[in-house]
Amino acid sequence: MTVAASAIAGARAPGSRSRWLAWASVVLYIALAGTSLVFESRFVGQVTLVDIWSLVAILGCAVIGALIVSTHQSHPIGWMFCGAAVSLAFSFFAREYAVQALVVAPGTIPFGQAMAWFGFWADMPGIAVLALFLPLLFPDGRLPSPRWKPAAYFAAVNFVLAVGLTMVAPATYAHAGYPSIRNPIGLDQYAGFFDAIGQVLEPLLLVLVVVSVLALFDRVRRAGDEERHQIKWFAFAGALLLLSFLMQAASRFVPLLAGPSELLGSLALGALPAAVGIAILRHRLYDIDLIINRTVVYVLLTATLGGLYTASLALFQRLFVATTGQGSDLAIVMTLFVLATVFTPIKNTLQEKVDHRIKPAHAGARPAGSRAGIDDLLMLADLHRNGVLTDEEFAAKKKQVLGL
Question: pTM (2 decimals)?
């Protein structure tokens, strides 16, 4: 019995060590991020809700990574998420430490210059993992096919080159309001050379991001039903990120978009680890079709009502000006009345159109006795019980699953 117990313990030891290391990275992240926030709030006083939410979202990456490692001990994406979170947290910590050591209270804590140096490049591994290598390896931790190896190697070489150049490039913390903090080993005499290299590397890295995303499309072509749903989760989070970037760019010309773009960017940042966790851990995996459906419906509904509100308000104001010679707040009341009247018809029409376009054609062809059919019925019942589906929607979807 003793020999058998020792053998079992030896077999479990690697898995236990993996779980321990993964959750240790979560603890390390919390320590680094928490200390950074203390530095920021106590000595600088510039902590915003966006900063806090960003740290919480990155904590989500660490936790999801640890959960993946705990379930699939050798899964590369679990370790990638843990490493990315620590990389980003250490970079934030290094910058705040350097500000404290070199500007706020010079000489009170040691190694200020060294931490300033780390602050210039320590977040690059985390960014590369999430932007370059995650799309290439999602969801199983392997490339879609051997022909993608050159792209992976090329991305790795460019990443190493970018990090190496950043380590010795002349730079400052001017973007954070501290131009006096400089790269302690920056080669100022070669500033022109580094600028020229940067102008080449930056667009090249963007091209590599696009290539990594194309790997997902290649994977979809040969994916099974479960893997397609995994990719849908990832694509949904990626679409939110892309939309937030587009809105942020558009806000330069339309200032009203600044607030919504910031809110959407924060939500998208938290959606990425959640989507990856659901996809790999397969918890409520098949809910993505309903989520995409509802998202498309309400985005279209918001855009339609927004356009209708603008047009109706302008029309009613013109009518009041034409009849009374001045505008009136009553135009807003009439506009809201119009929106309340057309809301349900527009929503139902959009829902019907989206159901027709997005729902898979074979959704109603599954035999009711199959495992997939039973799972779908249970999922629909759960959504109905939680109030996500109305009685009419639940009845219609049940008929689809049963093939009635």
Answer: 0.71
